[in-house]
Specification:
Helix content: over 70%
Bound molecules: protoporphyrin IX containing FE
Order of helices and strands: HHHHHH
Shape: elongated
Number of helices: 6
Number of domains: 1
Largest sheet: none
Oligomer: single chain
Distance between the termini: 40 Å
Number of strands: 0
């Protein structure tokens, strides 16, 4: 069996686990939590929004950790591995640019939703809409990532045995 390089594998785990937390958490907060709060026996709308705010704030440290892990593992993967596997394939690098911009939208929405500062009050006032947008854009990021992964990799450079074989056949032809 071929050897597995440990660091790329760990980075891949961190990237995929972060995606699980952000996409799963985003969809849960968008589709499940608001309905659960409506069904629960909470007396006023204020109670409901207090629970929603508490959930979002508790999600904050987890979300911020995921941003850091995405950036570290994503740039590690792109700058040290995948860009060399897709040389002369502009579509790959264009998709990386699109993905990165969409990821920034997800990060900005998550930071605003989990913030305790006054500037985020308008986002909190319409939290369900922004949670939905976060979830949809995060899903789009996963789809773009899957497309990047499905693109064919550049053929590997000729290896030493091939070069030797070419030299030998050239010599025998003389
Ligand atoms: C919302 C944030 C993000 C999500 C949900 C996300 C999700 C994913 C997923 C699901 C994969 C496929 C993993 C695999 O099969 O190994 C992936 C691959 C990748 N991601 Fe991300 N990612 C995010 C942010 C980022 C960022 C910020 C960067 C760059 C700084 C990045 C760079 C990459 C690269 C280079 C790949 C490899 C693509 C390939 O296989 O060719 N990602 N991402």
């Amino acid at each position: 069996m071929d050897e597995i390089a440990l660091l790329p594998l760990v980075m891949r785990w961190l990237h995929i686990l972060s995606a699980t937390v952000v996409v799963g958490g985003g969809v849960f907060l968008w589709l499940v939590v608001p309905r659960a709060l409506t069904r629960a026996d909470l007396s006023t709308g204020d109670d409901r929004s207090a629970v929603q705010d508490a959930l979002l704030r508790l999600w904050g440290p987890l979300f911020h950790t995921c941003i850091l892990l995405f950036l570290v593992s994503g740039f590690y993967n792109y700058l040290l591995i995948t860009r060399f596997e897709h040389t002369e394939q502009p579509i790959y690098h264009m998709l990386f640019g699109v993905k990165f911009l969409l990821a920034l939208v997800v990060f900005a929405l998550g930071v605003a939703l989990t913030s305790r500062h006054d500037w985020s009050a308008r986002v909190h006032a319409n939290a369900r809409f922004w949670m939905g947008l976060l979830a949809v854009v995060a899903i789009a990021v996963v789809l773009v990532s899957g497309t990047m992964r499905a693109l064919p990799k550049a053929p590997a450079a000729p290896t030493a045995p091939v070069a030797v074989a070419v030299e030998t056949s050239a010599a025998s032809a003389e």
